[in-house]
Design goal:
0% strand
C-alpha cells in the first residue's frame, strides 16, 4: 500500500467515526472533544512512528506494548523526541530498537537502585524460583524400598 492509500483509509475512518459520534447527543460535548483530541494525538503519534520505524521494529514495539504498555510508551516518547530534534538520520531498525530498550531498562534499573525511581528494575524483570527444602532425607528413600 502506498502512503496515499493509507491516508485515504485514515480519512474515511475518521469520517465514519465523526458520523457515529455526531448522533450521540449534546450532553457529552466536552467529553467528545477530549476524545477527539486524544484520537488526533494518537494518530499523530502513529503517523510519526510509521515514518521513523522499520516494519520489523514496529512489530517488536507492538509486541512490547502487549506485555508492558508503559515500556512501549517510554520508547515511543524517546523515539518521537529524537525524531523531532533531528537526531534520527534514517529509519530505526529492530537492532537499534533493542539498543534503546536496553538503555531504558538500565536507566530504570539505576533509578531504582539509588532510590529516586519507582521500585527498581530487578524486581520487575527478574523471576526468582525458590524451591521448598526439607521434608525428605536419606532415610525416607530406604523406607520406600522396604514396602
Amino acid at each position: 500500500m502506498s502512503d496515499a492509500d493509507l491516508e485515504e483509509i485514515r480519512r474515511a475512518r475518521l469520517q465514519q467515526l465523526r458520523q457515529q459520534g455526531g448522533g450521540g447527543g449534546g450532553a457529552g460535548g466536552e467529553e467528545g472533544q477530549e476524545d477527539q483530541q486524544k484520537q488526533r494525538e494518537a494518530e499523530a503519534r502513529s503517523h510519526i512512528l510509521s515514518q521513523i520505524l522499520t516494519p520489523d521494529a514496529a512489530d517488536r514495539l507492538g509486541r512490547i506494548r502487549l506485555v508492558r504498555e508503559s515500556r512501549a510508551t517510554d520508547v515511543e516518547n524517546r523515539l518521537i523526541m529524537l525524531a523531532r530534534s533531528g537526531q534520527l538520520r534514517s529509519k530505526v531498525s529492530e537492532d537499534q530498537l533493542k539498543d534503546i530498550l536496553t538503555a531504558i531498562s538500565e536507566q530504570q534499573g539505576a533509578r531504582g537502585a539509588d532510590g529516586s525511581g519507582e521500585g527498581g528494575g530487578d524486581s520487575v524483570g527478574t523471576i526468582k524460583v525458590q524451591r521448598k527444602r526439607g521434608g525428605w532425607d536419606d532415610d525416607d528413600d530406604e523406607d520406600l524400598l522396604d514396602l
